[in-house]
Amino acid sequence: MAAQTAWQFKEGVAPDAGSFVPAPKDSGELQQIAGRSTTYWSDAIRRIRRNKLAVVGFWIIIALFVVAIVGPMVSPYSYEDQDLDNTFQSPTLRHPFGTDQLGRDQMTRVMYGSRISLAVGIVCAALNFLIGVTYGGISAYFGGRVDDIMMRIVDILYGIPTLIIVILLTVLFKDKGVNPLVNVFIAIGLTYWLPMARIVRGEILSLKEREFALAAKTIGAPNNRILFRHLIPNAMGPIIVTVTLEIPAAIFTEAFLSYIGLGVSAPVASWGVLASDGTEAIRSFPYLVLFPALAISLTMFAFNFLGDGLRDALDPRLRQ
Amino acid sequence: MRKALSLVLILVVVVSFFGGLSVVPSAKAVAQEVTYNLATEPATIDPALSQGIPEANIILQVFDGLTRIDNKNMPQPAIAKSWTISKDLKTYVFTLRDAYWTNGTPVTAYDFEYAWKRALTPELAAAYAYQLYYVYGGEAFNTSIKVGSKYYVQAVDAKGNPLTKKVGGKDVPVPDMAKEIDPSKNIGVRALNAKTLKVYLQSPTVYFLNLTAFPTLMPVCKAVVSKNDKWASDVTNFVTDGPFKVTQWSHNEKMVFVNNPTYWDKSKVKLTKITYYMVEDESTALSMFQSGQLDASATVPISELPKLVASGDAQILPYLGTYYYMFNVTKKPFNDVRVRKALTLAINRKGITQSITQGGQVPALAYVPYGIADALPGSDFRKASQVSFYKDNDIATAKALLAQAGYPNGKGFPAFTLLYNTSQAHKSIAEAIQQMWKKNLGITCTLKNEEWGVYLDDRTNLNYTVARAGWIGDYMDPNTFLDMFVTNGGNNGTGWSNKSYDALIAKAKATTDPKARMATLHAAEKILMTDMPILPIYYYTNTVLLKKSIKNFYQSTLGFVDWKNAYMG
Amino acid sequence: MLKFILQRVLSMILVVLIVASATFFMMRLLPSGPFSREKKLPAQIIKNLEARYHLDDPLWKQYVDYMKNLLRGDLGPSFKYTDRTVNNIINDGFPVSAALGVVAVILAVGIGIPLGIWGALKQNGWQDNLVMFVALLGVSVPNFIMAVLLMFIFALGLHLVPAAGWGSIKQIILPAFTLAGYPIAFLARLVRSSMLEVLRQEYITTARAKGLSERLVIFRHALRNILIPVVTVLGPLIAAVFTGSFVVEKIFAIPGLGRYYVTSINDRDYTTILGVTIFYSALLVFLNFMVDLTYAWLDPRIRYVERKVS
């Protein structure tokens, strides 16, 4: 097991690097010292179940999904039905979240909007995780010239104004019949992983010089195994924090994209769009921004609870 | 002793109390200072280069033109104390009064001649130079080609197409060396002496005296500007002749004006200081208004407007503009006038203005808005002939027209896209109209919002089916609304073309008799409203946040604010 | 090390040039140009304008000319603000944004890091839960709502500070907190999570076992090791905050540089787009360089020069 590997060299006598003969790279047996994967995952699931907050977070997320799918179906209103005689109604039993500037039922709109926002939040977090972690990990692990080039690419992507890229995307996607959400995923996927890549890189730069990593290397474990089984699990803390905190950021970015003209078109509105539209009327009709903002916060809390649980479960050093 | 002392004390208190009362003036003098939110950083304060309303709202405070627009939207003598107009309405002779620049030198006719010619110089590239195309030779000079220090007309080939040649990879217009334009001779503005300015127009222009109050036509101090091209970038060089002068310009933050002691009409100016802020966010401006940082603001958040109007903190002012949708008449099915008419009739404008825009807008049942004088004094173009060309929310007729066009109950009507530029107000209106068409006619459209530049580009290239648009008048005449729809007009945007419409607009331009001219314009509007390349929705209004202590505030129907006569009461 | 620094500086210059070039050509692909208006200008006037700003030259020539001027430090005239140059705009806006940015970064670091440490030390106690709850709230409330709420409460409600504007110390408070909101929360969570890991490591146990005081353990031994993710975040954060936030500057009416990152693109003000982009990206690569140097200082094991594996 990874943690053991670290322990062994910490407590035992560190091998003299000069006298050590590297094992053949393709030696499969020797890598097995990294542990059996079945145990690792079942162990993680066992421990996540014991974490109450994580379980609560998990069920909130399930509930959000159920509401997103079933809510608009059972609601007596549709997200687009207008009633110009009943605009800006405060919350009542008939309209628990009130009605908006066109007299539409805000609760139905929030429920319908969760379909977009949850999809955006989760897909973007996943993209962020996949691209950012891999990119940052590779950059740091190989270091030197590779790191310099990969990180300079990140700097370039940071530097080019996202707004220009997004406007060009709207022109590119126009009349192409692509699902508008896919456009959003592409736009967010293009630049959203940059902070993650930098954070992972910073962690791995330090971790790869630690004893357990050097040890894995000296016994001839292949690069991808060292990176993905030894180093990245040890950087899980900052990774999970970054992923969960970028979920609300992605939800609001979707609202910005929709402002530029990328994404689903009105009258469908995501949480982000509902919240930013509601902010314009915040003085007189604060409930219009309150409910979508609450929905975003709730999602965010749920993912954080689950994320913290995941972190504890996946971090090899926190295992008993 | 003690008693006596306390008596004295009481006396002192009583006397000082009454004495104090009598010292306090009966009406405390109000500081004649005002803070106003311009809402945006002006692009320039050089009158020749100015384009938008924010720039105009600075220039009109610090400059005085030949004329100045009064509170009834009529031009009044300003730097020109009088004028004569020739019978053919083409020659104007202005007599200037004794007026002075802020640097103490007199304002002369030479300054006007210089300023107008400067604005027309091709290399200055003033965006609003076309406001001077009314002056004889103005357009020719502005579009001429400079060779050395001289200007020439662009050469044309046998078919009359302008000639260009490739030089260093770019197309350069070829000058016709036989046709020189000499700005000192070939432009219809000349100072006969320091106090007399003669202006010769390209064609009779009945609203010319309104134009002489427009920012582009303001004089500039020749002695200063001819020596310093960047004179407007530094307020210390910014020599002006208006009621106020600029003392400070902190970019994106504020601009400070004080009353101008050299102004010819300074006795009328009561405000001693105006501070313009550039607060872009409407809600922030309202917060600053409520917390006393602002006395007035050019912007009011829509959602708060009804409350603010009711409390008297906001005012609704007339604004010369029309909010409309345009049809791409080159695209099926909108090439069919019955379809366009059906879509026009099937919307409930009253519902939109009362429930959504809520700013006192008037449902538009024609194109030219209220507020433009017709031929007879005191008359209104809108009321003079036909107030409306169709009924609002006329669903029955709309359905019948749609059926005639081959789409009974919307059956078989192709799906189309309604395009608008991103803004919450445009979105709400589009959502409402989308639903009205669906409910009333059974036709479906999808909404599409675009970033401003992308939207403009799509509009220009007819890359849309139905699109949101708006037009604010440039001057107080129906022509500013109507001449844009001539065939291939730069602002037509619909692909619509009608020969008799073009002829009427051309005829109105050449007509000097006011009655005949207005009749021609009425006829033109009728054609437009019969062919319906556009779908008028409402006539704009302007809203302003205004403290009740501000008196005599004036904002013209073109949106121009004038603080000259305002005061704090 | 000197060779590393030299190489790095060269690659930084290259990055800025690539960003400038990519932005130059991408922005010219945007529909509409600097002189597009809803009320269209006559074609001949647009020609005059294009001639004035040399937009009628072939694109490659415009690019070469721009790059030549850039090397001389001349960012050109603004197309939108006729009386101003882009150098002018940056000179006016950057000090304002940077002043606000300094305060925001100090708040973020000064509040975020201690909160995170505190949370970790009291792991799962009520203090920890409270800190993390507040931090999460800070992240899930976007800055445009946060700004409005702060303004309502502290300016309109309690009359403690002016609602908006620039010029006095009091006017920095609300925008600085709005700007710092997300970083405070992010740093607090990051520090807490790193701290928890560090506290479980052997050398901390060893240090404690040696009888060192808790304070010494935290500040001498633990803090250094949690700073790597913090420093990583701070690089881009400082670059972003110092060049100004569009939302915060708009809502609090602050005459900074942030607005131009959005308005210049909307206005298609080409020179301003390039100027502010180059400025930001130069600042960013410089700060990321500083971050890398700080890594090496924080963790001497980190080496940038490739090891020769024999």
UniProtKB/TrEMBL annotation, chain A:
It is a multi-pass membrane protein. It comes from the Bacteria. PROSITE patterns: ABC_TM1. SUPFAM superfamilies: MetI-like. It is found in: Cell membrane. Pfam families: BPD_transp_1, OppC_N. Belongs to the binding-protein-dependent transport system permease family. This is ABC transporter permease. It comes from Candidatus Cryosericum septentrionale.
UniProtKB/TrEMBL annotation, chain B:
One of its GO terms (biological process) is peptide transport. One of its GO terms (molecular function) is peptide transmembrane transporter activity. Residues 75-492 form the Solute-binding protein family domain. InterPro entries: Peptide/Ni-bd, SBP_5, SBP_5_dom. GO terms for cellular component: ATP-binding cassette (ABC) transporter complex; outer membrane-bounded periplasmic space. Pfam families: SBP_bac_5. It comes from the Bacteria. This is Peptide ABC transporter substrate-binding protein. It comes from Candidatus Cryosericum septentrionale.
TrEMBL record, chain C:
Gene3D superfamilies: MetI-like. GO terms for biological process: transmembrane transport. InterPro entries: BPD_transp_1_N, MetI-like, MetI-like_sf. The chain crosses the membrane at residues 12-30, 98-121, 133-160, 172-191, 226-253, 273-298. GO terms for cellular component: plasma membrane. It is a multi-pass membrane protein. Residues 94-295 form the ABC transmembrane type-1 domain. The keyword Ubl conjugation does not apply. It comes from the Bacteria. Keywords: Cell membrane, Membrane, Transmembrane, Transmembrane helix, Transport. Its main location: membrane. It holds the Pfam family BPD_transp_1_N. It is found in: Cell membrane. PANTHER family: DIPEPTIDE TRANSPORT SYSTEM PERMEASE PROTEIN DPPB-RELATED. Belongs to the binding-protein-dependent transport system permease family. This is ABC transporter permease.
